[in-house]
Every structure is written in C-alpha cells, then in structure tokens.
UniProtKB/TrEMBL annotation:
Belongs to the TPPP family. Residues 166-184 have a biased composition (Basic and acidic residues). This is Tubulin polymerization-promoting protein family member 3. Its main location: cytoplasm. The lineage of its organism: Eukaryota, Metazoa, Chordata, Craniata, Vertebrata.
Length: 209
C-alpha cells in the first residue's frame, strides 16, 4: 500500500511539473507575441511618418522634419518636459555625422533618449514602454493644412445665381460658364439695328399686299 501511494504521488508530481512547464512556455510565447506586435506597430508608425510628404521615399529613413512632426503629432513634445529643441538635439545626436536622416535603429535610440525625460518618475523600462505607446500604430495628422472655407462672403462670391449685370450673362442657369458667348456681345450681320424687333418679316408683309 505504501509503495502504491508513493507511486501515485510521484505520478501526480510529474503531471504537475509538466503542466507548470507548459503553462510557463505558453506565457513566454504570449509575451513574445505581444512584444512582437508592439514592435510591428512601432515600425509601422516609423514608416508612415518617414514617407510623409515624400512620394519617392521607401520608409527606411526619416528626415528631421518628419521626426519633429512625429514628436508633435504623437504628443512626445509636451512643451514642458520635452520641447522642440530637445527633439532637434536628440535627432542630431543619434544620426550619422554626415547624414540628414535617421534609420529605424537610430529612431529607437532617439526614443530611449527622450523617454526618461518625457516620463519622469518612471523606471527606464517603464518610460520606454510609455513612449512606445504614444507612437505605436499612429500616422501623420493633417492639422495645419488650410481647408476651403464655406459660408459668408465666399458663398456670395462663388454663387453664380447671385451675379448681376454683365457677370450674370457669363453663366447659364446651372452655373456653367457660357464661354466666349458669355464674354462678348456677338453681332449678327442682318442689316438691321440691334434694337429692331421685326427682322425677317419683310417678305411676309410683301406677300400680304
């Protein structure tokens, strides 16, 4: 009985250890997948900003202008802990001496430089994670681009139905321009003055007599 109990106990311990190993492996795998996803999103954000305003860019390198835009759009610059000057200094620090752009690896270094400054009070690892969360999956915003204003004076200037005088004659009822006929007064060489309204009725009057 004692031997049987020991055997069962040993079997239970082996099963428990096997389960524990599998669980630990699953947790490590899940953490690795999460980390991989975060890296992919960070790279995606880098590529989106890298090609902003440059149609021929491949997204492998980022210039100083787009780096500054990334820091503004993603709230890396808070005007308090991190300023535009800080961003420019870090860009110059991580890039190659003769280069005007940074690679993705240099981009990561730049984030490390700014992380502890942006998130004071956090550990180095926590600050870097917080920095990544600001940027992951983001892209350039269109803030600052001038949009066409509507209403008020602009409507009055562009609504052809409200035109008067000679300007009104340049457009038809749909608002489409008439072209040359709307810009020039075309004269018909009929032999009659412009105000005469009975043009073409002479033959009819002669026949009537």
């Amino acid at each position: 009985m004692f031997q049987r109990a020991c055997y069962q106990s040993a079997s239970f311990i082996r099963l428990y250890l096997l389960f524990y190993d599998r669980r630990a492996e699953f947790c490590r795998s899940g953490a690795a997948m999460a980390e991989s996803t975060d890296v992919d999103q960070l790279l995606q954000a880098f590529e989106r900003f890298a090609v902003h305003g440059a149609t021929k860019a491949a997204g492998k390198e980022m210039n100083g202008k787009n780096w500054a835009k990334l820091c503004r759009d993603c709230k890396v610059i808070d005007g308090k802990n991190v300023t535009c000057t800080d961003v420019d200094i870090v860009f110059t620090k991580v890039k190659a001496k003769s280069s005007r752009v940074i690679t993705y690896e240099e981009f990561e270094k730049a984030l490390e430089e700014l992380a502890s400054k942006r998130f004071k009070g956090q550990s180095k690892e926590e600050a870097l994670q917080s920095m990544h969360k600001l940027i992951e999956g983001k892209g350039p915003t269109n803030v600052g681009i001038t949009k066409v204003a509507k209403g008020g004076a602009l409507d009055r200037l562009t609504d052809t139905a409200k035109y008067t005088g000679s300007h009104k004659e340049r457009f038809d009822e749909t608002g489409k321009g008439k072209g040359k006929s709307g810009r020039e007064e075309l004269v018909e060489n009929t032999g009659y003055v412009a105000a005469y309204k009975n043009a073409g009725t002479y033959d009819e009057k002669t026949k009537a007599k």
